[in-house]
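Morning. Coffee machine broken again, so started the prediction first thing and wrote up yesterday's gels while waiting. Chain of 325 residues, entered below exactly as on the submission form.
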Amino acid sequence: MKDRWGRTIDYLRLSLTDRCNLRCRYCMPDDVESVGHDAVLRYEEMMVVCQASLTLGIDRFKITGGEPFVRRGAVDFMRALKGLDGVRSVTVTTNGMLLEKALPDLVDLGIDGINISLDTLDAEQYHRLTGGGDLSVVVSALQAAVKAGVNVKVNAVLLAATRNQILNLAKFAQNMAVDVRFIELMPIGFGTTLAGLTRQECLDILYRAYPDLAATDEVRGNGPADYYKSRKLCGRIGFIAANTHAFCAACNRLRLTSTGFLKPCLCYDEGVDLRAIIRSGRPADEMHQALVAAIRQAVYEKPAKHCFGDQPDISEHKTMNQIGG
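Came back before lunch.
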């Protein structure tokens, strides 16, 4: 469906959990508390949200967290979601620590893509940034996913501390059919406490190794990334640069937190409480209609643009794991 600004909204980012097995500095450091078990939507409750979304033409789903694979039954939920009539794609974003074990089942269910969060290839730095992660486990899972023929993307947040890792990460796209996307640090939650790099600063570094790097209009995913190609690359280099190159005019997504709060925009603490509708005790048909109406309302209220350039106007103060990646 279209929002009041004429944008087609067809993409839902669905957080299975706010919990994670890592403690990345910009997301959920050690002192972040998880929400209670009863506050999190059950899988069957998430499924009715997806069914209502499909009614409105929202047919692309990204599974996120926290870390989705720390929640028992995550793969079974993805399989069931993939099997719904009308679903165009189901993809997942993961830190990769638990991916290799889940990979055979993901391949079997026909997962449409796996995004792996990976900010550095320095093992010691990775361990420090993630609060204890094992880089070798993630790289092994990435290689296994590529070997299995899955569409793989690497998501690297642009941190000042990892400037010297940009070319190392780009080599994934050079050596394999993998897209490496560099993401400007979001000024949300603990992201406000770290120094980031801009897309242009990253490009300046990449041009040294890939002087023929050129923009391409290829569509390579569900979201806002724009991509660059080079004769030296098997994959592509992508950028998600919400701070310096806002893509609001083409934004096509909603976010559902693990607690059932539907957010039209990452920047604002505004949205619709779908959990209250789901747990209202209404008959199934009435609940479906109420969910459709609530999702339509959220789409209608989607703002024209974010305000990341005006920090005092940002009303979202939750951490990224609480929001849903």
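The first helix runs from residue 43 to 55. Going to sketch it on the whiteboard this afternoon.
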